[in-house]
Structures are given as structure tokens and as C-alpha cells.
Design brief:
Elements lengths: L9 H27 L14 H14 L2 H9 L6 H25 L6 H6 L6 H28 L8 H24 L12 H28 L5 H31 L3 H12 L7 H20 L2 H4 L5 H25 L14 H32 L3
Length: 387
């Protein structure tokens, strides 16, 4: 099937070339990081996790979100999703690859990754996080490729693939749960120290990931006439709405616990994020308010059925939701966890231009992989008459 990549339109290759230029820009900037180390980033002794780990966390959720299609299709026999599943699985592959690249970037030197492999530490959550991510990547690659190959030849998938699909469902929950344990296991970081961190991660993932998938499918529909199906889109949008509602509810629970209990350690990170410190507000404050307003706006647009089922409005509603969840999880989570530090010292973290360029290159790498895999899937579906 890989030969289908060689038979594309000029627009497709221009798109790949554009992504390739962004990858090159990110790789070139990464050479500077290899030479000068993490000193070219905004991270410091007080803020040891930055933009890289924030994006890693967000993308683990995007990868795990494929389960929102697989679970209804295989546990509840909801066949309307089966047309979209392959795109969710291939998007998960791109997301996991980006997660791994962000970890490599965060370590400063790529050879440090070998320490995790050559000197495994079973008492480290990071060790298990790496294992579950690699396992999830293999599962999605095998399941996606085999089922697509069977669709191409119009035969039933082999029986051994079904246990792997069921395993991938549990695996999807595990990858984001283990990632949440990385945060919730840090006793000195009050913003992370919450028993519902894993639940917050999963609820955020199950609204943001499917929303990104639908937005990408809308772009594909406009360019290729591929139709994921009206009923499937409406059902997935309902799932997104429920997940986003739970996500916002969980955040409000954190706010109540922090301020009603009067525990300074729990209240200070939220106060810093939304009101600054000592009469000064940092750049993150504006982002957090925008994120909060967008989160409520997305719910206002998605909860009423008449607005939710409006196909012209839906892409905007999903875009607003994705922006809100990214600000919460891709910016605010890390900064709130490290500011203030356990000694109540406030160190402002701001991502530097090299950090952003390297991140841009990693995002382009993920999009490059997803573009190729989706191109193969679309061509196979055309051949098989399931377009």
C-alpha cells in the first residue's frame, strides 16, 4: 500500500514539501540545542518542565482519544464509526511519534534516552510511560495496517486482530493514566497533587482528541469529498460535548477545593494563573482568561442540539474547544505546577523562540506522518468502494 504515496496530486506534494521545510527548520534549531544545551530554552532550576513536556502531555491525550471511536464500534457494535476508525488510529500513530520527539527534545541530548532503556528502573513512572507509549504505537500500527489491508482486498480481518483491538482500548486509557501519575506523584507541586488528575486528563483527552479528528476530517471532506457520515459526526460530537462538560466540571472542583479549604499551596497556583502575583500579571494570565472564556463558549455552542448539529457552526465550536483545552493543558498545567515552587518563590517561565521552532518542527513531523497515512487510507477506501 505504501506505493500509493507516490501517486498524489501536486497539491499533496506541495503540502509535504511545506511540512518538510518546517521539519528542517525545527531540526536546524535542534542542532543549536544539542550544542548549547537546554540553556537556550526558558526552563530553569525552578521550572524544569516547559513547553516540550506540556505538548507531550496534550498529545498523549490526542493519541488516547482514538478509543472514543474504537470502544463504541467494538464494545457496542456501533457500525457508523467504522468508516472513521482507521483515521483515528493513524492520527494516534502521529500523536505518539510527536510525544516521543517532545521527550527527546526535553532531555536536551538524544542519547540520554538510552539511559531509560539500558538502565530500566521499574520503580519509575517514566519507565512505564515509555513502555506504554511504545506498546500503543505498535498496537495502532499493526491494527490499522492489517485492517486497511483487509479492506483493500475486501476480506474479513483475521481473528487474531480482535484481541489486539480490545487490548488497545485498555491501553489507550493506560497511556494517559500513567502520564497523569507522572504529575500526581510529585508531592511538592500542589497544582499537580490531586487524586482526580488522571480523570481530568482523560476527560480533556476525550473531548480534544475527537474534536481535532473531526476538524481534520472536515478538511479532508472539503478536498476529497470523503464523507465520514452525518450520524457518525453527530454521535461523536455528543461524546465530545459530554467529555468537555466533565472536563470543565473537574476543573471547577479543583477551584472549589483550593479556595474553600483555604490551603495556600492549592490556591496560589490558580491565583497566579488568573491574577498574577504581587500586583504583577505575566503573559500566562491573559491566555488563562481566554481559555476559560472559550471553554464556556464551546459548551454554550455544543450543548444545545440545534447549535451542535449545525454543520456550518460545528467547525468553529470544535476549534474553540480545542483552543481552550490546549491553553488549559498545553500551557497552564505546567506553569501552574511550577509556579510558585515549593519554597513559594515565583519564577516566570516563558517559552523561547528556539523552543517554539523545535516544537513547530515536531508538530510538522506528526502532520507529515498523518498526511501520508491518511493518503494511503483514502486511496484504499476509494479502491474498495467504501469512500
Amino acid at each position: 500500500m505504501i506505493e500509493k504515496v507516490l501517486k498524489g496530486s501536486p497539491k499533496f506534494y506541495v503540502w509535504l514539501a511545506f511540512l518538510g521545510s518546517l521539519i528542517g527548520l525545527g531540526a536546524f534549531t535542534y542542532l543549536f540545542q544539542m550544542k548549547y544545551g537546554l540553556s537556550i530554552t526558558g526552563m530553569s532550576r525552578d521550572v524544569s518542565w516547559g513547553f516540550y513536556i506540556a505538548q507531550f502531555t496534550y498529545l498523549v491525550g490526542v493519541a488516547a482519544s482514538a478509543v472514543m471511536l474504537v470502544l463504541p464500534a467494538y464494545f457496542h457494535h456501533y457500525k457508523k464509526f467504522k468508516k472513521m476508525i482507521i483515521f483515528g488510529e493513524f492520527m494516534a500513530i502521529g500523536a505518539v511519534l510527536m510525544c516521543m520527539l517532545f521527550i527527546v527534545a526535553d532531555m536536551g541530548q538524544p542519547q540520554r534516552m538510552l539511559n531509560v532503556i539500558l538502565h530500566p528502573t521499574p520503580n519509575s513512572v517514566m519507565f512505564y510511560d515509555m513502555m506504554v507509549l511504545m506498546g500503543y504505537l505498535v498496537l495502532n500500527a499493526v491494527i490499522g495496517w492489517v485492517t486497511l489491508e483487509c479492506e483493500r482486498h475486501q476480506v474479513e480481518p483475521p481473528k487474531w486482530i480482535k484481541p489486539m483491538i480490545y487490548l488497545s482500548i485498555f491501553w489507550a486509557f493506560s497511556i494517559h493514566t500513567v502520564t497523569a501519575f507522572l504529575y500526581a506523584g510529585l508531592p511538592g507541586r500542589h497544582y499537580f497533587l490531586t487524586a482526580i488528575m488522571a480523570a481530568r486528563f482523560l476527560s480533556s483527552a476525550f473531548c480534544a482528541g475527537p474534536a481535532i479528528l473531526l476538524l481534520l476530517l472536515f478538511v479532508v471532506r472539503k478536498m476529497t469529498n470523503f464523507n465520514p457520515g452525518k450520524e457518525a459526526v453527530q454521535t461523536l460530537t455528543k461524546i465530545i460535548t459530554y467529555a468537555m462538560t466533565i472536563n470543565v466540571f473537574f476543573f471547577l472542583l479543583e477551584v472549589f477545593t483550593a479556595f474553600y479549604s483555604g490551603m495556600p499551596g492549592h490556591a496560589h497556583p490558580i491565583t497566579y494563573l488568573f491574577a498574577g502575583h504581587g500586583g504583577h500579571v505575566d503573559w500566562i494570565t491573559g491566555f488563562m482568561w481566554v481559555g476559560a472564556i472559550l471553554a464556556l463558549l464551546s459548551l454554550a455552542l455544543l450543548i444545545p442540539p440545534s447549535l451542535r448539529d449545525n454543520e456550518k457552526l460545528l467547525p468553529w465550536s470544535l476549534g474553540i474547544l480545542v483552543t481552550a483545552t490546549w491553553i488549559d493543558k498545553g500551557l497552564g498545567l505546567i506553569i501552574g505546577g511550577f509556579t510558585p515552587n515549593p519554597f513559594e518563590k515565583y519564577t516566570v517561565y516563558t517559552p523561547t523562540v528556539p523552543e517554539l521552532l523545535i516544537s513547530l518542527g515536531i508538530f510538522a513531523t506528526g502532520l507529515f506522518v498523518v498526511s501520508i497515512l491518511w493518503k494511503i487510507a483514502l486511496d484504499v477506501k476509494k479502491e474498495a468502494g467504501t469512500f
